[in-house]
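Re: [ENG-882] Designed sequences occasionally contain unexpected residues at chain ends

Forwarding the minimal case from QA. Structure tokens:
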């Protein structure tokens, strides 16, 4: 990959052969983006009303339903570490995506089985009673289906982003950043459909149809992926990265003190008398640099997970009506999505280019840190709104509203007062999540892209588990005056929101410290790993490339024009 400049976009390939190559690259990129759209539509269709299905159809309590939500979402983002490792070392990215998709379809089929009313199919017994699945059987089908969905989405998520970026490299260096921006755009087109049309079908018509739609969407995702099968650029799997990393660390420990290497891991380099290629060791060092950054992102995802859990429980206890229309409570996620769909092209096509003309180039970590601040503001707003919601409930007495098969004592305040908290998290995604994908890809050597992308996605899974742990601790510590009881009207959920905001503030301070000392990958390191700078002139190791815009090396590749600025947040 290379800095984004006009000179770098030129290629030695004859002009006549460029359009077909570019056209083919655009086709396979479109296949991957549409595959991701369908997969994300499937995932969000399943997670959008997970709490509602568990409470209404499986008789779970609100805390238990939120726990299922956290565990399911967390698992979906823990598994990518395994999926990335399998792709890098055994199967390759395409086979990992395809195989995971097939497991995904099995999971969606089981969810349909859990939601179907079998009475018309199975008829009556000798006593005239309808045959149907009992609650335990439905729960078994549902939980097994969620397991397969988690495995499927985990295998896809670790690989589909890097796989698409690999195709984009054929067009030019700027195309990689643009790909990740539009990749996130397509994710949110899929979630928009899920949180609007599919969520409406699930809440107001039938969950069986509401789960059938995502099953069809997942099948379509596989069909689209296969459409570009013969045209994808692929990288064959290599050896076990984790095993190699372990061996490098062991040898570095054994040879400690034998060399004058500046870095501990350099002891294992062949240039210092070790057994491993310099490029291999530099790849392991890149992994070590990104891990502290990833740790600070976990708290971001802990707050993000509130949209499908505590924010949802707050929504159903507010007025969900627009006139006579009963709006799906999950539809508030549309405002999260809308701000993303607006901000991504706005930032990519207007703000970032304008900032570049003015000599301002926000680094990846600067953008990610700004998103963290927005999430803290989101939960603070939610806490203030919760105070007013309960005051309104106390003053007016509220009203009983039916959502699905359950009734809730709800405030007369409209649930659309929650729009700012959803929109703030949506804006934060453009900066922290979308940029985080780009950060994970750009800071990873080719042989470790699947693993590092999986580790980035792991932060989301850990965030859900951290959120679950916080809720469990809060419940245990506030028994006499519960913050988060089964009926949140009788609790103090606002304190939970303020706690999350405070934890994010502390997390952000830690992120600042890590970001200020972070050193981006530079040209010398990329040369040592044996990677190539596509569409760029030859680069002499140890020296930066020369091109017209000396003031700026494109932030996607972590380049800056002065090594001293590589530690700037």
């Amino acid at each position: 990959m290379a800095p984004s400049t006009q000179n770098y976009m030129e290629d030695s390939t004859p002009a006549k052969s460029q359009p077909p190559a570019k056209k083919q690259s655009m086709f396979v990129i479109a296949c991957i983006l549409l595959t991701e759209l369908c997969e994300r539509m499937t995932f969000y269709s399943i997670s959008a009303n997970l709490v509602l299905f568990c409470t209404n159809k499986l008789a779970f309590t609100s805390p238990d339903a939120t726990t299922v939500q956290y565990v399911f979402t967390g698992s979906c983002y823990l598994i990518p570490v395994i999926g990335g490792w399998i792709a890098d070392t055994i199967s390759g990215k395409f086979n990992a995506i395809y195989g995971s998709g097939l497991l995904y379809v099995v999971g969606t089929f089981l969810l349909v089985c859990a939601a179907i009313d079998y009475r018309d199919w199975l008829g009556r017994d000798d006593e005239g009673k309808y045959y149907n699945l009992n609650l335990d059987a439905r729960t078994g089908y549902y939980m097994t289906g969620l397991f397969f969905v988690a495995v499927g989405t985990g295998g896809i998520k670790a690989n589909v982003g890097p796989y698409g970026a690999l195709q984009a490299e054929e067009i030019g260096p700027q195309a990689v950043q643009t790909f990740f921006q539009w990749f996130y755009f397509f994710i949110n087109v899929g979630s928009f459909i899920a949180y609007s049309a599919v969520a409406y079908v699930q809440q107001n018509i039938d969950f069986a149809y509401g789960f059938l739609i995502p099953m069809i969407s997942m099948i379509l995702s596989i069909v689209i992926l296969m459409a570009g099968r013969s045209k994808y650029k692929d990288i064959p799997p290599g050896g076990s990265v984790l095993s190699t990393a372990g061996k490098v660390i062991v040898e570095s420990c054994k040879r400690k003190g034998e060399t004058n290497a500046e870095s501990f891991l350099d002891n294992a380099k062949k240039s210092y008398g070790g057994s491993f290629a310099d490029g291999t060791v530099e790849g392991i060092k890149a992994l070590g640099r990104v891990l502290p950054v990833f740790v600070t992102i976990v708290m971001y995802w802990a707050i993000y997970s509130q949209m499908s859990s505590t924010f949802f429980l707050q929504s159903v206890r507010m007025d969900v009506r627009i006139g006579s229309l009963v709006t799906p409570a999950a539809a508030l996620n549309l405002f999260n999505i809308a701000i993303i769909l607006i901000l991504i092209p706005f930032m990519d096509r207007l703000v970032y280019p304008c900032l570049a003309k003015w000599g301002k180039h926000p680094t990846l970590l600067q953008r990610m840190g700004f998103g963290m601040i927005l999430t803290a503001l989101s939960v603070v707003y939610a806490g203030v709104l919760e105070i007013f919601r309960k005051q309104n409930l106390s003053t007016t007495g509220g009203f009983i509203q039916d959502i699905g098969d359950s009734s809730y004592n709800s405030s007369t305040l409209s649930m659309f007062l929650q729009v700012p908290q959803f929109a703030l998290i949506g804006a934060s995604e453009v900066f922290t999540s979308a940029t985080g994908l780009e950060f994970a890809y750009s800071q990873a050597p080719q042989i470790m892209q699947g693993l590092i992308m999986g580790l980035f996605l792991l932060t989301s899974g850990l965030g859900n588990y951290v959120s679950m742990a916080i809720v469990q601790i809060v419940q245990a510590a506030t028994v006499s005056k519960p913050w988060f009881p089964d009926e949140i009207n009788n609790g103090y959920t606002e304190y939970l929101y303020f706690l999350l905001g405070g934890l994010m503030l502390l997390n952000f301070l830690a992120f600042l410290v890590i970001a200020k000392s972070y050193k981006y990958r530079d040209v010398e390191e990329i040369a040592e790993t044996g990677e190539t700078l596509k569409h760029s002139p030859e680069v002499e190791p140890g020296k930066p490339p020369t091109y017209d815009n000396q003031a700026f090396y494109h932030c996607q590749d972590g380049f800056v024009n002065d090594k001293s600025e590589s530690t700037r947040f």
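QA comment: On inspection the terminal residues look reasonable. Residues 13-251+264-567 form a domain with the Growth Hormone; Chain: A; fold (CATH 1.20.1250.20). Proposing we downgrade this to a documentation issue.
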